[in-house]
Amino acid sequence: MENRTEEFQELRPMLFSIAYRILGSVGEAEDAVQEAWLRFAGSPAEIRSPKAFLSATVTRISIDVLRSARVRREEYVGPWFPEPLLADPYEDPVRSAELADSVSMAALLLLERLSPLERAVFVLREVFDFGFPEVAAAVGRSEAACRQLAVRARRHMAEGRPRFEADRRGRDELAARFFDALQEGDLAGLQDLLAADVSLVGDGGGKAPQLARAVLGAQHVARLLAAVFPVLARIEVTCERHEVNGQPGAIFRDRHGKVLQTFSLDILDGRVQAIRLVLNPDKLGHMGPVADAWSISEELKRARRPLD
Known about the structure:
Number of domains: 2
CATH class of the largest domain: Mainly Alpha
Keywords: DNA-directed RNA polymerase, Sigma factor, Transcription, Transcription regulation
Organism: Streptomyces fuscichromogenes
Domain RNA polymerase sigma-70 region: 8-70
Strand content: 5-15%
InterPro entries: ECF_Sigma-70_Domain, NTF2-like_dom_sf, RNA_pol_sigma-70_dom, RNA_pol_sigma-70_ECF, RNA_pol_sigma70_r2, RNA_pol_sigma70_r4_t2, RNA_pol_sigma_r2, RNA_pol_sigma_r3/r4-like
Order of helices and strands: HHHHHHHHHHEEHEEEEH
Strand order of the largest sheet: 2-1-6-5-4-3
Largest sheet: 6 strands, mixed
Number of strands: 6
GO molecular function, one term: DNA binding
CATH architecture of the largest domain: Up-down Bundle
Distance between the termini: 66 Å
Structural class: alpha+beta
Shape: globular
Helix content: 40-55%
């Protein structure tokens, strides 16, 4: 058992990263990894390749969970975003930028267009570079079938594949300027950093205040941000810069340090192309105690009244 524990712990970061990319949920990915461990630890058979056994197990569990989750997502209130991921435990220095982009909100939303099997095959083959024999064993299909699934998945992904700023240093500098302008309520500064067709979208899931619809265009987005966020600072909401899903972002906390929401930015060609807010408390609990967004919304309204 001791050897199996060590083998599992060594593979755990990869297993979580596979499950999260298939499911888009931190909690469900952690549950899938835990279930894979129980099956690994409880198997009476000799397991020649722990990596093959565990990756296949966590993939199949994730596929089953995703099939039921998709029904719930169809009934979701407002836009659905993945649960924010602050740090991907799986690291490969040679492919760090590629891995970060594959876990971005934009990439995960694109993966939502695939069937569960296509999604699993794409993640194993294109993100983690599994050979087709390994992919076939993991998803329980023939190699020929997996090749067809991979072709379909690549085609769907290519149609809307998100692009990100290749210059990581320049990207991070622009993000720093964005958050400085945000906290200062610098309307002109914000507008200068936003793409002309920028979009701002929030995911509250009906459980937190959220925008009635997406806000589109640099002028409209800049006006909204410049009006709201300096007032949030006045009621002691703080902005903690942090990568979110491998891209520049931030965590907003109330005066007690509880998580209010996350921000993630898509940056390309020296401009912010998209801003995604996650406010649904069900998606924030893995980061710590969650703030009462409704209470803060009321406090924000009271704080803004003298300015209206």
